[in-house]
Specification:
Largest sheet: none
Number of helices: 5
Shape: elongated
Strand content: under 5%
Number of strands: 0
Helix content: over 70%
Length: about 90
């Protein structure tokens, strides 16, 4: 099942780019382009940006998981898995 999910993720270029490139691009933009304009004191700005980027990445990955489950349900692959001798876990 894991190999199937990884194969779908690698074949779908949109998911791959969003999962890998989007957090890096957002981090670079917010730290290097907006970092000097937003920083307002002695605190290091990157200490606040990185947890936000991680939270956004988790949210994007959760939405892609939900879309994949919905696609599998609508195409009937879940019914096929239920009829096969696969453990529920």
């Amino acid at each position: 099942m894991f190999v199937r999910c990884m194969r779908h993720s690698l074949r779908n270029l949109d998911i791959l780019l969003t999962a890998v490139m989007q957090p890096l691009a957002t981090l670079i933009i917010f730290v290097y382009m907006f970092g000097g304009a937003i920083s307002g004191g002695d605190a290091n700005y990157i200490n606040y940006v990185v947890p936000g980027i991680i939270t956004l990445t988790v949210g994007y990955c959760a939405s892609f998981t939900a879309i994949s489950v919905n696609t599998d349900l609508s195409k009937g692959i879940i019914d096929r898995f239920r009829s096969m001798p696969i453990s529920r876990s």
